[in-house]
Amino acid sequence: MGAPRRPRIRETGVPLGTLDPGPTNGITDVRGVRVGQTTLIRGDRVRTGVTAVVPRGGDLLERPVPGAIHVGNAFGKLVGSTQVEELGEIETPILLTSTLNVPRVADALIDWVLEAPGHESVLSVNPLVAETNDGRLNDGRSRPVGREEVFAALRNSSADLPEEGAVGAGTGTIAFGYKGGIGTASRLLTGPLGGHTLGVLVQSNYGGRLTIAGAPVGDELGARYPRAAPRTVGGSVIVVLATDAPLEARQLKRLGARAMFGIARTGADGSNRSGDYAIAFSMTEPRTPFPNASMDPLFGAAIEATEEAAYNSMFRATSMTGCGHAVDALPLDPTLEILRRFGRLPAH
Q: Choosing from 236, 244, 282, 313, which is the catalytic residue?
């Protein structure tokens, strides 16, 4: 019998933000968005994978989605970023993986696009692939993610709530000294807020002073869990944002910038070696300019959903060993006890 399922943070009763989540509280609440993942756990040295965010069915190369990239700190590898910056469009699925797998994953994504029906004459593809470094738990030099794994993630992509925790591109990642991973969340902007949906997916692999709903959880855990120091430096984070609001590339870039506010709320330190990126896209092409004055609810949604997705990546992750190292999952009972003590959860 397997270990009990670890809850998402909202399931524990921790209040997060003021906006309502979508039906599944995930990026796939944005209609048309699909997510697929391949997880690789082999022997005692391979702990990695790939996560695919597919903006929509149909031919992205023929009909790209409006998109933009915000760079919080550029210590990372993000293939395809310059064309997105220049044209304001995303023409392939967005793939997340580990550092040294990026060229192999990009090559496989090009194969996927070239082999699609109707692309027999295509001579240019701009694959969009981002990474964080999982080198403590995973043998990054083995570079095990390639065509088979990428094709599987793309073929298996669905509109269901994505699996979270130590899966896909988050299989070997670490956050704040504890096991990180993949997390997702969404927000609904109903009625006067615009009637739009915004969803976020996070690959967490960064450090700082873990803060949950404003409570100094990392500091409080530090005395009891010395293997995870209250302040951990380095790492990276990738945030993917999807919305059905009809935004142009400039506005999507602004939206991506607000995702970093959500990461900051979790206690991130934005260290020198932290590659921090937000990739944002819209499922709706603007026919008329979207008013800048109407962006505030979307900014708030991006901040709230990013913060919650990052917590979900840790709450759902399980402890892992690899390459001679052990990384514990965030201890939930002591964490919830701290949140109660700081007034973030009811006493009973």
A: 236
